[in-house]
Amino acid sequence: MKSEITRWHFLGAAAAAVVASAGTEAAERPPAGERQLAAAAARDRGTWVVDSHVHLKHGDAARTEYSPDQIVDTMDKAGIDKSVVFAMSTTTRRSIEMAEAAVKKYPDRLIPYVYALPHYERPVIKEIEAALVGRVFRGIKIHAGECTLAEYVVDPVLRIAGRHAVPCLFDCGGNHAAAKRMAQGFPGTRLIVAHMGRYLSTDKKLIEQFIGLAERYANVLLDVSGVVVLEMIVQAVRRIGSSRLVWGTDGPHPKPDTATFARTELDKIRQLGLSQEDTNNLLGQTILDLLTSSR
Question: What pLDDT does residue 52 have?
Answer without folding.
Answer: 98
